Amino acid sequence: MTGLLPLTIGGEPLPPQTRYSVATMLAGGQQAGQNLRRAADFYATQPKATRAFMRAEAEHLRAYDGPVLEPCCGEGHMSRVLAEFLCCEVISTDLRTDTGFGVGGVDFMRTKALPKGVRRLITNPPYAEDVDGVPLPIKFAVHALINLGVEYLAMLLKQSFWNADNRCGLWRDLRPSRLLQTTFRVDFTGQGSPPVGGLFVVWDRRHEWGAGRYDLICEGGLVR
After folding, report:
1. Nearest residue to 203 (alpha-carbon basis) of 181, 223, 179
2. Rounded CA gap, 178 and 59, in Å?
3. Cβ atoms 66, 114 nearer than 8 A
4. Do residue 48 and residue 12 come from a single domain?
5. Measured on CA atoms in the order 149, 74, 134, 48, is the torsion positive or negative?
6. pLDDT tens-digit readout, 57-107
7. Largest Cα–Cα distance of the chain, in whole Å?
8. For the chain, how many structural domains are there in total?
9. What is the CATH number of the domain that holds 157?
């Protein structure tokens, strides 16, 4: 998307002479000293993206039992679809306390253990870099897989996630099982003009661990 849209920060409009593309905002760009990202990196998951993922991954997901953890639940966009498709409990938490859904005030990166029975974690994590310059999705993956021992991890990321050198260590040391790119752009902003493609990155200890298989998914599931 190349069109420019007026934006607000903290509910306040930017100066009229300042205009940014939505893609720049999602990328976390800064112009004129402004940090354009939303508070707590909240970009809701469009339900059709989660449904496409579920249709593509249903067989693998159902190889695991027990509840699913969604640690960045926001307003429940992803959690509701997961519960609908898997017919199981979805434990929904979020760092923020004002989402009106799930349990707020829970910092996933500080958790010491998974909730009882949880083997699967599915989320749309924050995309920004942490204060040390490491992208938060990398920290989420390492914490989930290494520290907490999650057996199945899926994260919805931007299509361009791997287009940076600081992702190479994750690829070498914790290569995903599958990468599922959406054939449609995902509306993370709710503005009706999706600026980026979506990529579900899956680590699955029971199926294709470390294979790095790449597929396309449409709204109906895997493209065959």
Report:
1. 179
2. 14
3. no
4. no
5. positive
6. 999 999 999 999 999 999 999 999 999 999 999 999 999 998 889 999 999
7. 54
8. 2
9. 3.40.50.150
Cα-based angle 181, 185, 186 (whole degrees, multiple of 5) = 95
Same domain, 18 and 84: no
Output the six-digit token pair for 180. 């599922």
What does the pLDDT look like over 167-219, one tens digit per residue? 999 999 999 999 999 999 887 666 666 667 899 999 999 999 999 999 999 99
Identify the residue whose tokens are 């699913």: 68
**Same domain, yes or no: 109 and 145:** yes
φ, ψ at 146 (rounded to 5°): -90, -55
**To 5 degrees, how large is the angle CA 87–CA 111–CA 36?**
90
Phi, psi of 103 (to 5 degrees): -105, 120
Quick one: pLDDT band at residue 29, thresholds 50, 70, 90? very low
